[in-house]
Amino acid sequence: MSLIPDTICLFDVDGTLTKARQVITDDMYQFMMQMREKVMCGLVGGSDLEKIAEQLGGMEALMKFDYVFTENGLVSYKKGQLLNEEDILNYMGEEKLQTFINFALKYMSELKLPAKRGTFVEFRKGLINICPIGRSCSQQERDQFFAYDQVHHIRRKFVRTLEEKFSDSGLVFSIGGQISFDAFPKGWDKTYALQFVEKDYKTIHFFGDRTNKGGNDYEIFEDQRTIGHKVTSPDDTKAQLINLFDL
Fold first, then answer.
1. Residue 121 sits in the same domain as residue 156
2. Which of 103, 153, 193, 232 lies deepest, with the highest CB count within 10 Å?
3. Which residues form the active site (predicted)?
């Protein structure tokens, strides 16, 4: 089967190819491998390489995708080879970074939630991940927080506070997944990954679930360089691909 020319499909991970922070099903993974025989495929995730590899069934399985853009594309791979790497520490400097982290930790220390665990701030190459419940929570606690957040808007209020406090920092904020949100320099959202494919492909499809304003798929979904597809689950992603490419 020959590849569709000048076309690439980019995919969010959580809620698009997998359920939130869960491993891709064998059926979905095999379907995506069949997709690669039809069209070039890349992943654009907010998590770091290790977490995305865990969700896609290991590093070898992950690197079978043509492009892998982790941390919104700040760490990028093409055909399994490192393509680009940026570092938020170099951008902010230690003093500004600590001021931001200290404020975030103090804010979270005063939140009363259904549960609190550990790892509230996760420093990554391209962004800072803030998690009010703590990333070491169980799946049940994760689901509980997500439902609570839907009613009480814990993350949305937190982001508004940070936007006011650090209005001159050059940071922007994006809510993704069930339990956390990301802070990163303006322009370092998922559209950052497009610079590595826009010259080689005339048609760039993007599939994601958090496409509303404030979600971490919004900017790339709305970007004029992409054709955006909003999905509601991995099954919906599969159904839309079957319809789009006559599979």
1. yes
2. 193
3. 12, 14
Contact between residue 13 and residue 209 where contact means Cβ atoms under 8 Å apart: no
Catalytic residue among 6, 12, 48, 246: 12
- Active site (annotated) includes residue 6: no
Report whether 155 belongs to an annotated binding site: no
Where residue 1 falls among pLDDT bands split at 50, 70, 90?
low
Q: How far apart are CA 36 and CA 30, in angstroms?
A: 10
Mean pLDDT of the chain: 95
Q: pLDDT tier at 214 (50, 70, 90 boundaries)? A: confident
Give the residue among 97, 228, 222, 221 at the shortest CA–CA distance from 170: 97
Do 127 and 177 sit in the same domain of this protein? yes
User: Is 124 a known ligand-binding residue?
Assistant: yes
Same domain, 79 and 192: yes
Q: Rounded to the nearest 10 degrees, how much is the dihedral formed by the CA atoms of 9, 233, 12, 201? A: 10
Catalytic residue among 6, 14, 27, 189: 14
Does 12 show up as a binding residue in the annotation?
A: yes
Number of domains in the chain: 2
The answer to whether residues 196 and 227 belong to one domain is yes
Q: Are residues 193 and 137 in the same domain?
A: no
pTM for this entry:
0.79
